[in-house]
Structure formats: structure tokens, C-alpha cells
Design brief:
Layout lengths: L1 E8 L5 H17 L3 E8 L6 E8 L2 H8 L2 H13 L6 E6 L1
Antiparallel strand pairs: 1-3, 1-4, 2-3
Length: about 90
């Protein structure tokens, strides 16, 4: 089991768009082999900062997801439309 923390910073006024996009991405993630659960958190001290925490059977399963065309498409859309910077990912191995 591996947990992935994905940190995102939004452009002002784009948080709601990100939250809706996450709901769509979550549906794709549910279909990915190795995905267990994902949760979206918003920083109460910085409403432009979000954290997605995802549990996967392995780091390889997560890497398969982020290398998928669906993920790349949404990542490119986010980079061009709602993100204030490059997201950072942290891997927590159990």
C-alpha cells in the first residue's frame, strides 16, 4: 500500500472549478486498477491551496494513472486554466 499526497495551488477564483474537476477525475480514478480511495482537502488558512490524498496498492499503480492519457489531458487543462504553479506530489510508503 502507498499513499500519495498531491498539493495544488489555484489561481484566484478557480477553487470551485478545481473542486468540480476533481469530482470528474475521481470517477476515472475509481476505475484504475490499484486505486483504493482519494480525498480532497482545502487549506483553511489558504483557500487557494488544496491537497488530494490517494491510496494505491503500489507506487507503480499510481504511476500508471499519472501516465494515462486521461490524467495528462486534465493536467494540461489545469496548467493552462486554473493552477498557479506546478503541483507537487509526495509518496508515503507504508
Amino acid at each position: 500500500m502507498v499513499t500519495i499526497g498531491m498539493n495544488y495551488k489555484m489561481l484566484p477564483g478557480k477553487g470551485e472549478v478545481f473542486e468540480k474537476a476533481f469530482a470528474n477525475v475521481l470517477e476515472v480514478m475509481k476505475e484504475m486498477e490499484g486505486h483504493s480511495a482519494s480525498f480532497l482537502y482545502k487549506d483553511v488558512n489558504d483557500p487557494l491551496s488544496y491537497l488530494i490524498v490517494s491510496d494505491w496498492s503500489s507506487e507503480e499503480a499510481f504511476n500508471g494513472f499519472i501516465q494515462s492519457k486521461k490524467f495528462r489531458d486534465v493536467a494540461n487543462w489545469g496548467k493552462e486554466n486554473i493552477l498557479a504553479g506546478r503541483p507537487t506530489h509526495t509518496v508515503y510508503k507504508q
